[in-house]
Queue: 4 jobs
Job 1
Amino acid sequence: MTREELVQQIHIKKSCLCIGLDTDIAKIPSFLLDTDDPVFEFNKIIIDHTHEYCVAYKPNIAFYESMGPKGWMALEKTLRYIPEHIFTIADAKRGDIGNTGKMYAKTYFEYYHFDAVTVAPYMGRDSIDPFLEYHNKWTILLGLTSNPGSADFQMLRTGDAYLYEEVIRLSSEWGTPRNLMYVTGATHAEKLKSLREIAPHHFFLVPGVGAQGGSVEEVMKAAGIKGETGLLINSSRDILYASAGEDFGQAAQRRAAELQSVMSRYI
Amino acid sequence: MTREELVQQIHIKKSCLCIGLDTDIAKIPSFLLDTDDPVFEFNKIIIDHTHEYCVAYKPNIAFYESMGPKGWMALEKTLRYIPEHIFTIADAKRGDIGNTGKMYAKTYFEYYHFDAVTVAPYMGRDSIDPFLEYHNKWTILLGLTSNPGSADFQMLRTGDAYLYEEVIRLSSEWGTPRNLMYVTGATHAEKLKSLREIAPHHFFLVPGVGAQGGSVEEVMKAAGIKGETGLLINSSRDILYASAGEDFGQAAQRRAAELQSVMSRYI
């Protein structure tokens, strides 16, 4: 998907909501457990109820991987079920040397046909380049994450900057605002502003809204790009598990609609 | 596998060789392509011919993942085929927030029964802890990698140290030499000595011998631990693709035996 197509969807839906499909077999309502593929059935109902309110879905690969080959089959079916105009992100956080990076890029862009994949920066440029080489595909590099451990290394000072700032500054020369985005954790809204100065034109994927505590308004005010929004704001558990009962689809829909309604004020 | 068991195998075989199973369907001798599962058939022949000379196998997960569910099935069969006393490493370089990290740990330790998994440090302690919680399992954290991109972030100065030194120094307090190892690239043999000072008791997994250019002797002299060796030295492509013909098993055996013979002088 091109940047123009993504921005168009954001304007049409007045939403920059990304829904994280962190589908955990241990949290799926029990009535689905008798079906052939409970993970896919759960995702299907979530997608049916939320696709009007979001512009992206982000399957969290760990949850599928942990189930062995049948988890990957559920992922494949889920990808095919997501409507064409919705941006798809493999939340995989991969990163390895060139010849291995190529294999990861092939997995997500060629085998599963994702629009985007999240990548870890630690191994540097040749671990990221294989993803950037794909036309109209996106690399979403970890900048600042939303977990407590982000303080351990990302916030180390290196010269005049934090490591996460240096990661964004340097890598922004490797890709362009048309093929590279950044993960920037919403639990640090005050830091989003300074990141927007370092990368004024790149989309930010902002996790940590909801279960992890960030606020949609704060994020949109701090890091929006005028006319393009430039943000994908993610919510996972808050939407997926809004109800543990048979009405989980409706509950997810209400939560997604609430978030979309807040977003619409800034788009 | 416990540390004592691993050290015992190193002494019995006079080898600290780890063979990377970066099995690439595009490089497999063509006579295997007609079989039901060429990747598994290739691995089987490699294992048959090399298991006497190595103490560890390290499947590179990207190569299996890129083939979809059937790649994971080949991985599962490969794992079952590796003799019990050989240490197994999932070269996965995973790393994500706590609840997702748990899923990755579950994948490699519970579903596939690996002894160890490689993990990326960027997201900090709560992304690593879920792996460290398993009894008699190992986390192998990226310290200094052997690719050109290691210069981009790993070698940034942070305070008085390089980032990779700080990663090792800080994380060595999270695990112990009985459940935590480090990836330390062999193309920087001069740096291995100083890393051994920072982490005197932890095993190092050293990639980059062979195709990537490092020397076994240099590594063993620079970073060995007296009486325990404390090293797993990896070779992948040099062994797997020593011949492109039907004799690839024998060629792999010769190459593995050569490396083991060099190692035996220092064990």
Job 2
Amino acid sequence: MRPWEKYIRQVDPYVPGEQPKLSNMIKLNTNENPYPPASEVQKAMQKVDVPALRMYPDPTSEDLVNALADTYHVNADQVFVGVGSDDVLGMAFLTFFGSSKPILFPDITYSFYDVWAKLYKIPYETPALDENFCIKKEDYYAENGGVVIANPNAPTSICENLDFIEDILQHNQDVVVIVDEAYIDFGGESAISLVEKYENLLVVQTFSKSRSMAGMRIGFAIGNSRLIKALNDVKYAYNSYTMSRLALQTGVASLKDVAYFEETCNKIITTRERVKKKMKDLGFSFPDSKTNFLFATHESVPAKELFLALREQNIFVRYFEKPRIDNYLRITIGTDEEMDCFLNFLESYLA
Amino acid sequence: MRPWEKYIRQVDPYVPGEQPKLSNMIKLNTNENPYPPASEVQKAMQKVDVPALRMYPDPTSEDLVNALADTYHVNADQVFVGVGSDDVLGMAFLTFFGSSKPILFPDITYSFYDVWAKLYKIPYETPALDENFCIKKEDYYAENGGVVIANPNAPTSICENLDFIEDILQHNQDVVVIVDEAYIDFGGESAISLVEKYENLLVVQTFSKSRSMAGMRIGFAIGNSRLIKALNDVKYAYNSYTMSRLALQTGVASLKDVAYFEETCNKIITTRERVKKKMKDLGFSFPDSKTNFLFATHESVPAKELFLALREQNIFVRYFEKPRIDNYLRITIGTDEEMDCFLNFLESYLA
């Protein structure tokens, strides 16, 4: 070790879902949408003012903020945008969780929460999901420095209803409660309807799943204007220009075609429900997903074996070698054709 | 104050350079390049695979890393990329400055260094520039936890030669030394040539100035592969997907036309030297800029008065209400036409 290496930050290595560059693969491992972005995005690309790229983007992201405010029927001062929901969530952790009391989030949930908590030296506790991978809401009645709930939760795919979320809010009115709704558009009910009633509620969503824009890195938060102002103050203080001009422009464009958005979400839901039936017949069990993925375990064949067997066929799903979930696969819902390939292989493999 | 507001992070409000949306303005306030990006960028935009935006970008940014490695004649494992040099620098502070000894950077320099140091609880000291706004290299011989030098420095515009940088490196072989070269392409000599010799040297540059791509948010660092690996480990741990597909593609494209790059840099340098002469005649003095801006003070008229008078004419320059530099204007070098408007107004105003 060189002397200058002595103070390098030590991190737990994180391995993102594989992004293999094969042409003939079926990629069901990173919860991407199988359908392209709205056609308005293509049109926006054709109209891009390339010479204007020489100038910084609008640091307030005004056009995208306004488009989101229109879409979700809130005021512009209730909307914050960032470079994917990871950026928005990280900024929210940094902004809101300055208490010396621990923040609370489930033991099995999105894997970056504890990473950001450690980064910003935020104490945290992780109440265990029950044996069916459900959040026990009573665990969130304890005194705390903030609450983070992914709803639907990942990778469990379970969505709680709004009464459940409101119960947690009722018990946590003195701290900021973040509801991470990355997958809400696949059949869940958004807590955005509660932001008027609970000024300590921040709802975070992303363009990466339901809006088919993972490649552009766009996320957003909706909440009381006091929360949003605090987020913007912190953002401007640390990095004023994060959203590129093209992210802002394609983001606005992708919000325009509501019918296409609903159509693709419904297609994914329909495919998901069909795949659920087939997988049950094949001996799989899984929570009742309200997301664009299934979190499935097989009655006899270990998940890791299936993961590797699928991979041999260039069918990529996600496998987490972690306690409690190491016999589960997370399978993104692709097109009907992709899911048929996936199911056909399983059928022959398990026969 | 609401109870949940009690633990909100308090930050020093930062006001980015104005981004007014006037059509008839002359914008010399944020050091943008007056010339458009290389024509390859326009071509790349026409070829964008819009349906592929549904997928996450390549987390390794391989194509852009390879293009930068080719451009700067280094290996791919010596290149790190990020969302503008702010993202790269912030990540470098987080990664390398874990010592309990203070890091060192000048009292007058890029205004985000102390912000990031405070954010990551890095102790720091800021040796004062001399009365001519020059860095005193002896100040960096003291024991420290790391060194950050902007070269050319901002907003002073002064560029030191490589012997000067190497002297600081010679005296700091046990800590990471960051040389922030946002403005190096306007007449300075890059320390990239020293990375083979000093494995603790990280050189940071940006596409926002000399490459006319501020709107895309692309920055990069070049250094020893051990430094780059550490940066990537930290980046993957906290946020795996930051560079959008379009940032990667337009970034690669903008590196292709070397002749155009050199031509636009030379045009800006030529304009700058012409403006220097005129401004001297008008009673201004300034360090001998090797950047795309001048840092100028007038012999009799206060900077703030000039700032406001220019603004009345929709000519925007930057004014910092800070100790030692509150009688200076930072004036971006625009096109010849823009600078003529600027100079003509000054001439009549000061007459």
Job 3
Amino acid sequence: MLELEMKAKINKYTRGRIEQILRMAELLEEKTEEDIYFSSPIRDFKETDEALRIRYSGDKAILTYKGPKLDKISKSREEYEAFVSGDIEQILEKLGYKKVLNVRKNRKIYLYKEFKISIDDVEDLGEYLEIELKSDNIKDVERIENLFDDLFLESERRSYLELLLLKKK
Amino acid sequence: MLELEMKAKINKYTRGRIEQILRMAELLEEKTEEDIYFSSPIRDFKETDEALRIRYSGDKAILTYKGPKLDKISKSREEYEAFVSGDIEQILEKLGYKKVLNVRKNRKIYLYKEFKISIDDVEDLGEYLEIELKSDNIKDVERIENLFDDLFLESERRSYLELLLLKKK
């Protein structure tokens, strides 16, 4: 299963149109997420465009591996997830993975047609929108692109992790 | 927390004494376990005396990291465990870990005084006994050694994985 996804910064020019869409969408969930990103002992995940993270949300923890992006426009990539509990952070550290950064955000998730739209208020970064589609076909990313065009949104391909690391420099 | 542990092969000379002890012990649990062991992309776990495995038992899956043995006699070592579900095998494979071998066994777990005694019927290896004590102090392994002496048992420090790999050669 692929995670077809595009992201954009919400600003004063785009906020109005996004809010129009959200009025037609169904609010599914609002939650606080804290992500811990890890670096690999053998690969520079920044170079290979991979990511390994643990996401804590409520009483759940999810380990996620994200493969390299599959095209030049979207954030679509291969993704594997496992629910975890117990000593997972210690196990990763013993295997040589190191904590890079924590990303904290408040996330509102909406369902709009076949799309999952997340409105993220990210600590130290501000508000972003993500549109996601689950599919086995990378070509379906065009459907997200069309919605982006309708909303005059500009695709931000860098992850919150990258944006936060840039800001810290 | 340390896993203080010693293991011995059960044979016709030791079986009688072990059964005497088990008659005074309480049977806690009987279960089938299937362990998948992984090799690391950067370290030779055989050299570093570490192990990474997923244990499937019933509907549970546990990811375990075992550090190097802490002394020359027992199998005592640092151990971290996490319950896992979902794509954990795929995540490990994406990070470069490779499946080495599956170890299948029927395990009966007894409580005898402060010791946990496991009687393992291991596929392709036969019957083994393991005596375990949870403790923060490596010196407590002497209490297991004393019980081993009482039972005339000889310590087997090699893991089931190592024994199976030797047998396959």
Job 4
Amino acid sequence: MADLVLTTFDWVPETPRGYVRDLRLRWALEEAGLPYRVDSTPFRERKPAHFDHQPFGQVPWLTDGDLSIFESGAILHHLGMRSERVLPTDPHGRNEAIKWLFAALNSVEAASLPWSIFVFSGLTGDTPGWKRLDEFLESRLQHVEPVLAAREWLAGDFSVADIAMADVLRLVDRFDRLENHPACRAYVARATTRPAFVRAHADQMAHFSAAD
Amino acid sequence: MADLVLTTFDWVPETPRGYVRDLRLRWALEEAGLPYRVDSTPFRERKPAHFDHQPFGQVPWLTDGDLSIFESGAILHHLGMRSERVLPTDPHGRNEAIKWLFAALNSVEAASLPWSIFVFSGLTGDTPGWKRLDEFLESRLQHVEPVLAAREWLAGDFSVADIAMADVLRLVDRFDRLENHPACRAYVARATTRPAFVRAHADQMAHFSAAD
């Protein structure tokens, strides 16, 4: 019996498949070797019980016994506390992993998310707004590039920081925006050939296509 | 002798004063009652040593003995681990605080930051891009509103989650964007009248104006 239950949508449209954030947690759970099962919540009709677990009406959330956790970053943090396979236990390694976990979400994804919203909304024309968002993303990628050129993983061994950072950069790479950032691109390739990622990705794809 | 050293810029222009992110850490340190001192790094000329501590060339960073930590979220997390005055110790309270800390940064600030970049860049005209970013922010505020209407602080007692969330919402409130979200607005007012915030804010203002 798995104590850990990861909840995602029952179905999503084609475009986000392979990129829904439960992927980050499937990946971490596979890396950690923790037993878990996946549950579903309706995509089309979001009920009050959904908001009790995830106040923004999004996915995923994780239950661990009587704890219910939302936010992929918070769940990655929780899984790191449960398994040293995804979070170093020595103070320096742990500090590296936790600061880069926050950096992936609050410095890099804070720039890549609005950028991707403009991409998905067809707002990438020659406007000052699009230019400003693209510059903002570029300013982050420029600083991540030398870091990833100098190390294999962000905190020494592979950790939850890499799951967050690689998943954030993977969406940018989907639109060829890492072309001039070869270390970022190589890092995404390195991370996404890990067996745990491959399993997590295949499982998410199978989960959503089973509902078609 | 303070083990904790918080580094911020030596000077910034008028507009960001009172909103530079060292404020979050000054606030947490004041709430926790931990001794600390503030150090400066040049705003105009960012040297390699700066990037060693903060790879994006921003501020703040905190040193705690031989640990150097960047990202305001990671530093809040670290200070929470050091003081139960800003992070509950029971598993449920701690879970609430950590998930809302990530939510403030990755769900709310990920929407408010691009929105504020458009505001500061004068890109708030009648364009599809601005409309899309404003809708994105609205979609977050709508879900935060009932949460803040139902509780005084996010995790029971005041915690680092409130420092992050109140500071994120405070910038939105600066531009009157909380007008239709009275619980968010009341929460910002409640948080920013705490003596620790008032001291932290006055200290930041004094720090930057001393360099004029």
